Amino acid sequence: MTTRLAIVLMQKDEGELLRAWIDHHLAITSPELIHIFDNGSTCQTTHKILEEAKQKGIHISLQFNRPADFEHKGDIICKTIQSIQTNNDSDFVIPLDCDEFLGLQSDTDSEPTFDRILINNHLSQLKEQTGYFKVKRHYFNHPHDPDLYHINNTPRKYFFGDSLLKSLDVGFHSPQLTDESSQEQCFDSNLIAFHYHNKIFPIRRANAINKMRSRVKNFLDEELERYVGPGLHLLKDLRGIDKPFAPPTQYRTRAFIEHIQASAIAFPHNLFQEKCFASIWKRDRAERPLRQELTKIRRLITAELNHSDLTHSTSTSVRLQTASTDIKQRYNANYALLQQIKHSIKRSRPRRRIGNATEQLVIPIRNNRSLANAYLATFIAGPRQSIVFDCRNFWTNTDTQLLTLTSSAVEADDENVILRHEAKCNSKLQKRLMLHFLMLASTQSGFKNKGK
Questions:
Q1: Of 159, 37, 25, which Cα lies nearest the Cα of 95?
Q2: Which whole-number Å values give the CA distances from 249 to 105, 110, 267, in the listed order?
Q3: Torsions phi, psi of 51, nearest 5?
Q4: Strand pairing partners for 285?
Q5: Using CB atoms within 10 A of its CB, is residue 441 exposed (0-12), middle (13-18) or buried (19+)?
Q6: What's the order of all strands across the beta sheet hosting 137-142?
Q7: Which of 128-142, 286-300, 333-347 is predicted with the least confidence, judged by mean pLDDT?
Q8: Are the CB atoms for 412 and 206 separated by under 8 Å?
């Protein structure tokens, strides 16, 4: 008898890793038992993969697409698990991350297996148990050796049968059951996870920026050293310390590599092996005519603002956590002022489209003026154009870091941070950031402009 295993995932911009994750788990369970929540992906590859997954019968939800939704990931996933349990849609349900690939292993003397029948048979032996179940162990990848893994059993990961789930934290490590008498009944299983947590450093640091942008005031070392809260394990990545997660217990196996090869799963090794990585952002830089066009537009808009009743208080600093409120207070940015900016940009918009209709524009940021110019491009770009900010040399400026509120980091090596603008960002916040960047550019904030 087939045992039904449901899997629930929330992801953002995982691209080819998401494709590998889907292909791997489709070999273990049925498509209608896989639920994927997209947290506002900006990557066209990810959008295409999600559409292909939907056509295969996988449940795809675009409802929770804001950064704030990520902070409530535990609640969102919990409600989905509760619905699956209440409707008896599966026998077991497990929440996973996109870097976790399920397998089976009875003990460390046997090789891991990914055989659907063996996994089904093992789960069928657990069906009569009351309580919940623990994934036996995690194999964390090594960033320099594809056959080497680090064994770790904490933090723990769980899955659930008939006992109803009550609550779930963001990391899925501390579940609470509705029936308190079942809470202490946690059983070991032989399920394992190959956990590809250790991406190469530029990608790992970019992911840390995306997860922590709404939790910290800024990304400067002195602020990060004081930080206490969710995501403490990400602070080393944020501070530029390349130290992969590598527990002392090592295990060498080619089981997973051979599995994906035999299954013809296209696994993105370039994300995990430094020798395979090559930055793609050095090409497609915005040409000088485009930068000059943006400068012209910025000056026109700034001139209009200077003739308005705009007030400006430098006593209010703008922080990542409270940026929208801070900007509102600093400039008295009411609705009328934001509408004025919107209409000024519309009037100043060039008649011809900037660049090709579908191209990716990489705009370098070197000072406050180029920061304002780059952000202007997000207002006048075509619907199919992608705006990318090259923040190298100006990332340590806390105002530049505000870009992360409406952009996703895609690469971050040392201070060379690359951000991709999110087309479906908060429009009010976008206009307030535009106001702030325009005002910074009009004064240069004491920064000596070395550009042309």
A1: 159
A2: 17, 16, 25
A3: -65, -40
A4: 362
A5: buried
A6: 100-104, 191-195, 137-142, 145-152, 250-252
A7: 286-300
A8: yes
What are the backbone dihedrals phi and psi of residue 117, each rounded to the nearest 5 degrees, phi first? -65, -45
pLDDT at 448 exceeding the cut of 60: no
Average pLDDT of every residue of the chain = 88
From residue 62, how far is each of 69, 214, 354 by CA, in Å? 11, 20, 29
Where is average pLDDT lowest: 91-105, 157-171, 303-317? 303-317
Structure tokens at 428: 């009010």
Residue 345 contacts residue 354 (beta carbons within 8 Å): no
For residue 139, the one-letter residue type is Y
- For residue 445, the model assigns a pLDDT of 41
Axis crossing angle, helix 427-443 with helix 323-331, rounded to the nearest 10: 50
Residues of the chain within CATH 3.90.550 domain(s) are 5-198+244-276
Count the Cβ atoms, other than its own, within 10 Å of residue 334: 10
pLDDT at 332: 86
pLDDT of residue 273: 74
Domain 5-198+244-276, second-level architecture:
Alpha-Beta Complex (3.90)
Tokens representing 381 are 């770009």
* Structural contact between residues 433 and 425, judged by C-beta atoms closer than 8 angstroms: no
Per-residue tokens: 49: 């993969």
Q: What is the mean pLDDT of residues 283-297?
A: 76
Please answer whether residues 418 and 409 qualify as being in contact, where contact means their C-beta atoms are separated by less than 8 angstroms: yes
pTM, entire model: 0.84
Give the rounded distance of the alpha carbon of 301 from its chain centre: 33
Tell me if 246 sits within 8 A of 145, measured CB to CB: no
Position 18 pLDDT exceeds 50: yes
Q: Is the peptide bond before 155 cis (omega within 30 degrees of 0)?
A: yes
Rg, Å, the chain Cα set: 24
Using the 8-state DSSP alphabet, how is residue 402 labeled?
Answer: G
